[in-house]
Write a structure and sequence with these properties.
By secondary structure, the chain is of the alpha/beta class. It is built from 6 helices and 7 strands.
């Protein structure tokens, strides 16, 4: 869902302005699966992706999953607190955070440069790791304002023992 909607937004609203493609930053990127999905779908040009997560185990798994791109210098995984990431070190034109419900601080969002395309996801799942509960995309938009909203959506996930809603917004900060 994220890959499809982000690709649509990029093709319609923000075509790559370089011959090499987009530079994407995955905040709280876990295993870097978003890179794998976007690259194997091959719908938008990508120059470089960096996944940032606090968990060292995520770096190890992320580099295994994305080995080919890591080896070519087109992917990196770093262990770091996203609240203190220096956006001036690389020129990322897309920032993705699909782990918003895990983050109590908004410092990471305030540090994203204005004019950057941002894709955010959160859920209302009841879980010990979740510090906020988002049940609608408008709640995401209120908490993380955008100068231009490109997409908002919600998906219901139903399992035998639980159900939850996952919200997503894509826009220009």
């Amino acid at each position: 869902w994220l890959a499809q909607r982000l690709e649509d937004a990029l093709m319609d609203e923000m075509p790559a302005d370089t011959t090499n493609g987009h530079r994407i930053l995955l905040l709280a990127g876990w295993y870097g699966v978003t890179n794998l999905l976007l690259r194997t779908r091959s719908r938008v040009p990508i120059e470089y992706v960096c996944s940032v997560d606090l968990d060292p185990a995520c770096k190890i798994m992320s580099e295994k999953i994305n080995n080919a791109w890591n080896w070519r210098g087109e992917f990196a995984s770093i262990v770091y607190d996203i609240n203190y990431f220096d956006y001036t070190s690389n020129e990322f034109n897309i920032v993705i955070n699909s782990s918003v419900e895990h983050l109590s601080s908004m410092e990471w969002y305030h540090n994203i440069p204005k004019g950057t395309l941002v894709c955010l996801q959160a859920s209302d799942m009841d879980h010990d790791d979740h510090v906020i509960n988002i049940s609608h995309p408008r709640e995401l938009l209120e908490k993380y304002p955008m100068s231009e909203l490109i997409y908002e959506g919600i998906k219901l996930f139903e399992f035998d023992t639980t159900q939850f809603r996952r919200s997503m917004i894509i826009g220009i900060k």
